[in-house]
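User: Hi! I'm a student and our assignment asks us to look at how structure tokens line up with a sequence. Could you show me two examples?

Assistant: Happy to help. In each example below, the sequence comes first and the structure tokens follow. Example one:
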Amino acid sequence: MKKLKMGLIGAGGIAENRHIPAYQSLSEQVEIVGVHDVNLVRAEEVAEKYAIPHVYANDLDMLKHVDAVTICTPNKFHESIAVAALNHGVHVLCEKPMAMNAEEGKRMLDAAEANHKILMIGYHYRFIDAVMLAKASMPEVGAPIVTRVQALRQRKVPGWGVFINKELQGGGSLIDWGCHLLDAALWLVAPSKPAEVQAQVYQRLSKQPNQINDWGSYDHEAIDVDDHVSAYIRFDDQSTLLFECSWAANIKEDQTHISISGENGGLSVFPFEFYQPKYHRMMETHAKTTEDHQQAGVLQAKNFIDACLGKDTLKSSPKDALLVTKVIDAIYASSEQGKPIVIN
């Protein structure tokens, strides 16, 4: 059986903790043949640790020797690297978010379509057990009315990497963390499409000196990205989504929440519960599910590999990812302009 030759572009934590283990667990289908990082020493360390045969000082050189690449760089470089790879006839799995903005994301999508190559964005929550069960349950929920999403962390601003750098990342808690839950929610309520966004973006707690922060220290004067976001999203069918995400909330504990109230029933994802009026009572059903991010990473990798080999279709399409980026753009624009933003 033909193995997909995979290259890694970016050798940071997400490559080492998610993508490399996922590909190595699927070694009958994929082989990591090379790694590139702007920090060549880091690339060499990762290559040695995981027995990756080649280290490339230039990512363009890698493209001559691989069938696909996985992009794990800061967000600023997603579009340029992905477009170059796709134009070289190489499939692309790119970490989320798709790009810094929808304009860049559209160029990535256009390149994939023009070259007939697979482009997938790493929204791995779609492959988490409870989310997949929720998707399977949506026909019984019926048309969505109100969806609620919370991606809240008590005091966990990432104190490593470039997460607090707007020039390199484009945003903070929304682009890093909230986008996962936003993507999952939009997937669950599809084909309902977001039509208008009213939002407010905050940058207060993370700017305070003498921080209490569970995820390392950072320069409170240097941070220039959002630490808290709230949004009200109206859909084309008049359903709505109440959205909130944060790196640094003054709350009791972290919260990961998606719930949907529909015409025929409702559900909550974490943990999975289903609610439905039956026999003149409100019935509540529980299911044992897991929130295993490593397993979700493996399922995501397998879906990408199978799609590249012509054996499957993507569970997370680049068009869906572009829609998430359009909503993110609208959230930031609404806060900056102080008014609702229409999504075209």
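Example two works the same way, sequence first and then tokens:
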Amino acid sequence: MISKDIIDAFSDLAKDRGIDRTNLGTIIEDLFYNLIHKRYGEERDNFSVIVNMEKGEIEIYQEKEVVDEVIDEVSEIHIKEAQKVEPDLELGDPYIDVINPEDFGRRLINTGKQFLAQSIRNIEKQAIYDEFDDKLGTIVSGYVNQIQRDNVFITCESAELVLPKSEQIQNDRYRRGESVRGVVKSVKVTSKGPEIVISRSSNEFLVKLFEMEVPEIEDEIIEIKGVSRAPGERSKVVVFSSDIRIDAVGACVGMRGSRIQSIVRELNGEKIDIINFSDQPEILLTRAIAPAKPLNMLLDEKQSYAVIVFEDDELAVAIGRNGQNISLASDVTGFTIDAISKSDYNKQHGIVDENHLSTISGFSETQLEVLSEIDVTTCEDFLDKKDDILELKGFGEKTYDKLADKIKEREVDA
């Protein structure tokens, strides 16, 4: 009855761990193959194990070749011994020996329980791996369990997820027990079990948040054409509507900003620029570089390169803090962008601004040089900075008024 005892003992343990009988039968077979290999050697392949869970039977067979001189007792049997059991056997015939499971010793059940426990752990690890491998690229949520310097560990059902520092939003702050969401970035097998890495800083996380909040994206009416992020600070998202009746940007923003506000809250205030797609690069680039407004644009579509000219006081807005705005615009459009001020562009190309003081008769070269030292180069500068100019050597009240009249005369003529 040892076979039934083994199956009953294993069944109780398996039931507690939620392992079905089919898997249990496979585990018991693996147990006996493991014991066989330990006793006879890993290379032995002349054994068969059959477990019948319904009948509570374990059958172990050892196949041997009938020979007249036994060299290997594990795989061979002498013809006289074989014929005692089956008289019709001849040299070279196969002989099947039946092994009693009890032959593996009295400690078989205890050994088997240890093997079963390890097998169950392996099955559980594989189940976790399979579950999250299927969830790659989707958003999952869990509760913060442990906070370390470089990683936050999150419990999600029966699995532990890892949120590395590199995948965190820079202004995220975590507390034990709080709920956290992230997109499953990778799943791999390690010696300790599955390592499931989630991300909150990736472009994919932002895309999935939009898919959750904007039904038109899931319905494939609106398509996200491109995403670029400076996580926790700013993002640019290019969207396109396949239905001319639906405004892609409006749908993503939602009524009174409800949809976009939900995403922004999840990302701790990250600013999101939603850009309407255009297949005309100059229009797309103009939208992507906002809030700055280009004056002029020179494109090389083959090289995906653009030079964009801005008013002098708009250049800093176009570039953004630490180059963030132009970097995001470049990334989301696929164009390398060089931003340049109007004055620098004009200098490089020998273009004289019609508003420049040099176009006004009456200004000497010396006066123009002195004025440029205090950044007075245009007609507006000259009229706006009277007090500063009167402090300069060579610019008295009469001289200033005379030159100012010249500027005003030109404006009247224009």
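Here is something you could point out in your write-up. The mean pLDDT is 87.
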